[in-house]
Design a protein that fits this description.
six-stranded mixed β-sheet; four-stranded antiparallel β-sheet; 28% strand; elongated; binds adenosine-5'-diphosphate; binds magnesium ion
């Protein structure tokens, strides 16, 4: 399968704004790639170029191996695109909306009703089959538009801030549908201006700022590149201000501990940058000092921690 989206020196200029600055990017088959960055970073401009609705200033875009400029039909046939502000037809019924697009995608008349039902079920809108679009909630509309995007069964899905403005439940429903699409083998590029929103289900991520892609890669690659940071938590059997302070200061003086914190429960937390041997040495020293330690735990960063870290390091 290999690379499903490939960008080489993609650049998008508006009259006096350089919105996307020579981006290189490869997204592999089966990846859920989260493009994250603050408003104005250039996400929508890059996505519109990849979706073939905005001609880039220069650069090469390939979708499933097809060059968008040289073989636009082949490239675009592989692609489903959901824009940030999709137009909807308020006075159509839900099923009519999908039926119109099914016809446009040349799905034969006899199969259309079945296809419409299938996709409505997939996005949990079966009971809204006959509702008017203007009576749907924002979350329902987004799911309807997602159903429309999925209708021709594209291999690559590109979604520009699909969860923006949704409540937590609607966001979860959107995520679950996308997870299922990924499990069925689709490659997904999804953008958000909220760093943590994508952390639960992306396996690759790019951080965009001022038109540049600052960090990009699989979560594993980024984990390695940032250095394997761990979070250390120490709990005392019978914490007193004196022994908690003693442990706190001992850790605070170590070059391997940073961002020291004390919780309300008198637990001590810090970012730990040392090796296993370094941790073992610290534990031995603390035990020799009779600090009554009963828990000493080092945990690797989870995806959300990594997101926050690359955000803190590279975006703000
Ligand atoms: N049609 C346009 N004409 C001129 N400038 C634009 C246009 N669209 C976007 N921009 C500018 O390009 C930059 C990137 O915008 P955009 O791609 O929408 O970023 P994002 O989606 O990350 O918020 C911003 O400075 C924005 O003001
Ligand atoms: Mg945008």
């Amino acid at each position: 399968m290999g690379t499903m989206i490939s960008l080489k020196s993609l650049r998008v200029d508006y009259e006096d704004v350089n919105a996307v600055k020579d981006i290189d990017l490869e997204i592999s088959a089966g990846q859920i790639y989260g493009l994250v960055g603050p408003n104005g970073a250039g996400k929508t401009s890059a996505i519109k170029a990849i979706a073939g609705i905005l001609e880039p200033t220069y650069g090469e875009i390939k979708i499933a191996g097809h060059d968008l400029e040289l073989e636009p039909r082949e490239a675009l046939r592989k692609l489903g695109y959901m824009p940030d502000f999709p137009p909807v037809y308020e006075n159509l019924k839900v099923w009519e909306y999908l039926d119109v697009f099914a016809a446009a995608y040349l799905i034969p008349g006899a199969q259309r009703a079945g296809k419409v039902k299938h996709w409505l079920k997939k996005v949990s809108l079966s009971e809204k089959h006959d509702a008017l679009i203007k009576d749907l909630s924002r979350g329902m509309r987004q799911r309807l538009i997602l159903a429309k995007t999925l209708l021709p069964d594209p291999q690559v899905l590109i979604l520009d801030e699909p969860a923006s403005g949704l409540d937590p439940l609607a966001r979860k429903q959107m995520r679950d549908i996308l997870k299922e699409a990924a499990a069925e083998g689709k490659t997904i590029l999804i953008s958000s201006h909220i760093l943590t929103e994508l952390s639960e289900f992306c396996n690759a991520v790019g951080i965009m700022e001022k038109g540049e892609l600052r960090v990009s890669g699989s979560i594993e690659e980024i984990r390695v590149r940032l250095g394997s940071h761990k979070r250390l938590t120490v709990r005392l059997a019978s914490p007193t201000p004196a022994n908690v302070d003693k442990v706190y200061h001992f850790l605070g003086n170590s070059k391997h501990c940073a961002s020291m914190a004390k919780t309300e429960k008198q637990e001590i937390n810090c970012l730990f940058t040392g090796s296993k041997e370094d941790a073992a040495w610290i534990l031995t020293q603390l035990t020799l000092q009779e600090t009554s330690i009963y828990d000493f735990t080092c945990v690797e960063d989870d995806v959300e921690d990594i997101f926050l870290k690359i955000g803190a390091k590279e975006v703000s």
